[in-house]
Amino acid sequence: MNLPDPALHDDAVQLRPWTEEDAPEIVRCCSDPLIPRYIPVIPAPYSLSDAEEFIERSRTPSDELNLAVAGHSGELFGAVGVAIQSDPGIAEIGYWLAPEARGRGLATRALRLLSAWTLRETEIARLQLQTGVENLASQAVATRAGFTREAVLRAYMDNRGARHDSVMFSLIPGEA
Fold first, then answer.
1. How far apart are CA 41 and CA 158, in angstroms?
2. 86 pLDDT tier (thresholds 50, 70, 90)
3. pTM above 0.90?
């Protein structure tokens, strides 16, 4: 996926490409126990080399787009990303925020920006999002961003060898 042009932003956040300078901050944020708890693909513990590999992957053209969620003065709030699934009409979107950035509506803003762009600029027929059943904050973000809660998928997510239930949300063109 190509970078949005023009870049996505609103009055509180901008979604920008990752830079090498972000690596230490990514390590700090991803070392928060809640992030790997709810996002199985995040290594735990999280190292500087993990961050550097993530940044490099984010620059390599693929069916995935990963962006930093930042303030207009440059501070890193978190991440938002979208990936086309094996069915090219379906994409999955996800996000995380630094602990100090939570509870301020920043994830909802970032999710709205990238969701609207994805549905407008790609041929995606379904944008989906999943959260752990106990992750009520993430479920609230999805709902505020306009996603529809569909179902609880039993034992759907493998997180470090343990199966967990997951709540599936979706957004389709015309709803964003």
1. 10
2. confident
3. yes
